Amino acid sequence: MSFRSLITLVLLSLFASSFAQSGNPTDNGNLPLTEQYQLLVDESGRYQQYRVIERVWLSAFQTHLTDSLAASTSKEADLAATIEDQAATIGERTEEITALNQEIESLNGEKDSISLFGLSLSKAAYHTIVWGLIAGLGILLFILLGRTRLAVSSAKEAREKIEKLTGELNDSRKQRLAIEQDLRRKLLDERNKNQS
């Protein structure tokens, strides 16, 4: 070869390399797919109105696209599994909350009731019974007092009985007050326990 042909060959290679496509734009696998595609189109050669893209570049882009789709599918499956787990957990928690609410309602029912001779009575019914008994005892007391007044021969005996019954009534009232105070303390303690 002559020197002239060598120079021509060198000039042609330099000229061709200036128009040749630069390195593979899809080598940047860390770029988003849209930017990789734009680089692929920008770096591709032109032939009339067409773009000429090297097969290696298309293969690399296809690999990146496939990897991105696989990663998205895997992430979607992971998210779906997470959603299912969270839905199951929410269902379990809802059942627990329902059970706890039922237990709270039953405890409140027990707290608002009093057991008398094995029967569970509401506080209002219990108070009605107690006050009815007290009223009955009071009526009975008045009947006894009336009878003792009518009986002149046993007036002294009747007075002693009245004093005795009055003392018992006072003791009963004191005991009842003590019991009521104990019940109030226990009720307050139960309420404080349930509130905390």
Description:
A hairpin with a 2-residue loop joins strand 1 and strand 2 (50-52). Helix 2 (33-43) packs antiparallel against helix 3. Helices cover 79% and strands 7% of the residues. It is mainly alpha-helical and 196 residues long. It has a two-stranded antiparallel sheet with strand order 1-2. The chain is built from five helices and four strands, in the order ααββαββαα. It starts with a helix and ends with a helix.
The radius of gyration over CA amounts to: 50 Å
Please describe the biggest sheet, giving its number of strands, its sense, and whether it closes into a barrel: 2 strands, antiparallel
- Alpha-beta content class: mainly alpha
- The geometry reads as rod-shaped
Q: Tell me the fraction of residues in β-strands, as a range.
A: 5-15%
Provide the spatial order of strands within the biggest beta sheet: 1-2
- CA-to-CA gap between the ends? 102 Å
Determine the fraction of residues in helical runs and give it as a percent range.
over 70%
Mean pLDDT: 78
- Number of helical runs? 5
Order of helices and strands: HHEEHEEHH
Please provide a brief summary of the model:
By secondary structure, the protein is mainly alpha-helical. The chain has helices at residues 3-19, 33-43, 55-111, 123-150, 155-195, and strands at residues 45-47, 50-52, 113-116, 119-122. Strands 1-2 form a two-stranded antiparallel ribbon. Strands 3-4 form a two-stranded antiparallel ribbon.
